[in-house]
Amino acid sequence: MTFNKNLLTAALLTVGGFAAISSANAAGTVEDTFDVKLKIDSVCTVVASGAVIDFGSQDAGALADTVGIVTSSSTINVNCSLNAPYVVSLASVNVPSTTGTGTMNGPGDDVITYQLYSDLLGADVWGNDGVLSGAIGNSVSGTGEGLSTAATTHQVFAKLTSTTDIQLGDYSDTVTASVIY
Prior knowledge:
By secondary structure, this protein is α+β, with helices and mostly antiparallel strands. It is built from 1 helix and 8 strands; from the N terminus they run αββββββββ. The strands form 2 sheets. It has a 5-stranded antiparallel β-sheet, with no helix packed on it. It has a 3-stranded antiparallel β-sheet with strand order 6-3-8, with no helix packed on it. The longest helix is centred in the N-terminal third of the chain and has 24 residues, at 2-25.
């Protein structure tokens, strides 16, 4: 038993001696740094699915002398990251045009044309000219308000630009609203 006590005492003194040597050798401190990073990428959404430019019902030939008087409007909602710049462009699917001109196809080969605008008076054409080259062109620009806020509403106006003195029936087109951010 005394042998075990002596052995235990010797072991404790040895461990304590190593600890004393280790703490005596830890006389300095060395430091270095590292970075913590995060990049937030811009996010935008566009909702145009509920938007409808509806010119209603028009009598055949009634607008031959009043083209451009019949107007309609709808809204496009855009929601982008805070302070993210964006551009909204519009293009007709039936006859792609950079100038905001659209064509509604109807019975036979008959068509009715219209023009898209970003203002009620029809002074500012709304299309997609310049967007592919990185310019705003005739598109509409904005700055994101943040994804947790209400979407920014952009109103789009349209005017008929051709006569209705054509075949009776329904005429339609689809417009693609693109948000570039």
